[in-house]
Amino acid sequence: MTVTEVPSPARDQTLRADASPAAYGSPEREPARRLTQLDALEAESIQVIREIAAELERPALLFSGGKDSVVMLHLAVKAFWPAPIPFPVLHVDTGHNFPEVLDYRDETVERLGLRLEVASVQDYIDDGRLRERADGTRNPLQTIPLLDAINEHRFDGVFGGGRRDEEKARAKERIVSLRDEFGQWDPKNQRPELWNLYNPRHRPGEHVRVFPISNWTELDIWRYIEREDIPLAPLYYAHERDVFQRDGMWLAVGPVSQTREGETVERRVVRYRTVGDMSCTGAVDSPAATNAEIVAEVAASTLTERGATRADDRISEAAMEDRKKEGYF
Amino acid sequence: MSATMTTTTTTPYAAGLGERGLLRLATAGSVDDGKSTLVGRLLHDTKSVLSDQLAAVERVSRDRGLTAADLALLTDGLRAEREQGITIDVAYRYFATTTRSFVLADCPGHVQYTRNTVTGSSTADVLVLLVDARKGVLEQTRRHLAVAALLRVPHVVVAVNKIDLVGFAQDVFERVEAEVQAVARDLGVAEAQAIPVSALDGDNIVDRSTRTPWYTGPALLELLEALPPSEDVEGESFRLPVQLVIRPQGAAVSEEHREYRGYAGALASGVIRLGDEVVVLPSGQRSRVVGIDLGSESLSEAFAPQSVTLRLADEIDISRGDIIAAAEGAPEPTQDIEAVVCWLGDAALRPGQRLLLKHGARTVQAFVRSLDGVLDLDDLHAVSAESLSLNDIGCVTLRLAAPVPVEDYAVSRRGGSFLLIDSHDGRTLAAGMVGATLPSAPPAPVAPEGDEDFDI
User: Fold this and answer.
1) Per residue in A170-179, pLDDT tens?
2) In this structure, what CATH number is given to the domain that contains residue B312?
3) Using the beta-carbon criterion (under 8 Å), do A36 and B19 form an inter-chain contact?
């Protein structure tokens, strides 16, 4: 099926961003007892987290220090308050982290009294179980350490901060998603997921991945961070940094990302829309220094966060699907 | 509390967004009716496709020798889907207009993926059913209407697609409209408004088309924006299935919370206020609500589908799976259930089988006493059968190992729905609706008024 006319990608910001005054004084206001979008999303996520924690014996929550896992953690705190979160957090450490994010991770773990388990890609490379890729990115190398950690700790469920709006293979994910003994995702044979009845049962050796914030968009995440005043790692906000351009992205100068011939370093005001492997996660030019400014920026953005900042997702049309089938999150 | 808080931001963007509700919609229809194209069109024309996504679609389309972008590629994200040009599993997409935010479940049309359509429809406020104007009602159309009727999707909108391929002919549209509405009526779908559309060209999707001057109704998006919200908590009775009992323990717990005992869950229906009398099911013990907590926030009331933690005046025995309900009119727990099920398992269901049943936060053993009929999709009534196969819709009588306070699905979508689960491998085998029935006799053919050419 084809369309005969595709308008230019230049976007009418007002439509998506809803600056139209009609949105405020609309006569068709929702009734008073109707959840707003953020409240509806929050309610769904908390229900998922509680249900899985109740049904499974040994869940864990993937925590990278990135904004999505931070929001997920915040929701978990709410889900069990005033009791502490009844499961550990797991970080699959690429060894290519932004130092600010590691600091933030450790502060958060300390503040919330969490138990942190770390699966280190670097250890695997050091002892030869994994080999560095030619392109240097370590995101795809996280799969094996993750699966080993799941086996070692006998985790039967792993909460992940994946969102369906991030990427088209993730758009196909269930909220509770079965993985076989090799950690593989079978997208052609997913379990039906009905109403709000979640079924994480599985055979020994299998486990489930659980995505409580599946239905949140990047904008929802930022509006919630703003509303709930959730602290984040500082690199999400505008700051000066030495960067150089590669593949249309601003990469930070650091131990794992050095300029090649022809690339020049500039000092620019940037921020990060996603944080991941430092060698392939790009910064964006941005003056947005507060949550409110970021909400406005994201609402008006013409690029998806992955399109803007992830070199590894540009490898092929099905890069994410292929990684997920192998057990990636 | 958060539900009534006003957004404090100063940006116009965020201020407008905070006031809106969320509408969940699902698409259905037979294969090749153009669902993914319609979804692509909705996303594209609401400016929900960002430039890098569009560039990727254009690149792939070009690689395949197409002269223009194939919008179906926006949602058909799996390798196998792209190879075969079909939709295999539900894709969830998100878009917003000035008045609403939408979660869209793009469901597959192939009969072997009907279970995915059931998945997408179970949470939908609106089902957008596509019908090819040239083909009219097909078996999958009937099946999807039957699913919408059984799952009681609050609104059904029929998009009569490819109207451009029949020359924008009014009589073709009206014939298909009458045909669909007759089937909908027989299945008990309350309303099924039809719209002539071309997903390919965008006619009547976002804006009304000048090529269908005889059509005076709304464009699809206009209709989706105007549909009344489906959940009306005011008229419902309060129910909260207890997911967890929260009793903080350990050194990290502060002094003031040492005695805390709360019952955590999502309201399945209704409203709860401080001071309300409640009854715990199935035990029947009564108490009064003295606290409603959402995280560290104390609320004076909560309503469905909020996730909260309730504190009660009395120390009574409550555990996961119990239901806290309004003291008046609480359902009677029962071990015997009659229900309609959509069978989603690869192996057939037979009387005498033992399964697990999950209702709310409770899972109990269940025994299939009898199979009371299966829906014949040709003449839309129940016929007798010895087993239910994948994608069949049938009536069953179940015996449960313990009393469960189920409600009629017609009264409460959350209180009357259940899963049947394979106790060996954990598979979800069926979607069940308590107290639902199937038509027992074939419907009498009804010729729509003023249309003598109509044949059934």
Assistant:
1) 888 899 999 9
2) 2.40.30.10
3) yes
